Amino acid sequence: METMTCPKCQGEMAVHRRGGVDIAQCGSCSGIFLDRADRTSLVENENEWHLSSGPRTEPLPRITASMPAPPPSPARPRYQSFLDGLFG
User: How far apart, in Å, are the Cα atoms of 44 and each of 12, 40, 41, 50, 82?
Assistant: First the structure.
């Protein structure tokens, strides 16, 4: 692959594959550049992430004294968006 030059600062750019999308990032100014199709793909992934991470409403069980304590939930990072998960 040939070397790409940043259109903003003329620095050398590197291509990273994140979330199925090729992202060109400048090593000098940290600018990020995408193809139109890749940008569309990121927007669609972001929308799907928000739809799937919405509130999950399930009926709560009736709590009784004889019930065992629930197991601890696994610790996992909480992201505010799909892109946070890619670049976080």
Answer: 29, 6, 5, 10, 10
Whole-structure pTM value: 0.50
Q: Kindly state the DSSP code that residue 80 receives in the 8-state scheme.
A: S
Q: Are 40 and 34 in contact (CB under 8 A)?
A: no
Tokens of 23: 């992202």
In degrees rounded to 5, what are phi and psi of residue 62? -75, 125
- Whether the per-residue pLDDT at 76 is higher than 80: the answer is no
CA distance 88 to 82: 10
Length of the chain: 88
Q: Which two tokens stand for residue 86?
A: 């890619």
Cβ atoms within 10 Å of 2's Cβ, excluding its own: 4
